[in-house]
Amino acid sequence: xxxxxxxxxxxxxxxxxxxxxxxxxxxxxxxxxxxxxxxxxxxxxxxxxxxxxxxxxxxxxxxxxxxxxxxxxxxxxxxxxxxxxxxxxxxxxxxxxxxxxxxxxxxxxxxxxxxxxxxxxxxxxxxxxxxxxxxxxxxxxxxxxxxxxxxxxxxxxxxxxxxxxxxxxxxxxxxxxxxxxxxxxxxxxxxxxxxxx
Length: 197
What we know:
Blueprint: E1 30-32, E2 37-39, H1 41-45, E3 53-55, H2 56-65, H3 67-111, H4 119-164, H5 170-186
Antiparallel strand pairs: 1-2, 1-3
Helix pairs in contact: 2-5, 3-4, 4-5
């Protein structure tokens, strides 16, 4: 049955709804809202008795009600936000290159009139600028790569949930929804280096 799904699914089959509690060896059929954790009925009555919890079917019904709107919001707001951040990083890389070229040209112009002993200073400054450029662009490229990676993960998960919304088990829906929410929150907290000089 799982072979019919072409997308890679990191959390197991989207139809899987028979997870067992490792502590009590009972079916997991409840979610603790306070801990954001899947639990069994016995866990709910013991370790989570003072917490807010609800059945998987109730929680899944609530998630399904707003799922398409939630996925649309991600596609229309979060993904364009990532694209905008990627574009800023790309622009900063171009600016860094132009700034480096400009500084190197300025150094050459001022050093033309100097004696031969100043050539070593010129070469040292040129090396420093290029090393700094590499360091700056390495950081920006890492950030860009991380954003590209996170964007691909979000896009794949959104497409997967759109295609399999009606087929997913309650457990799978909630688990995917939770992971997607984390992905959409996490990309915003990548340290921004686009404003550094």
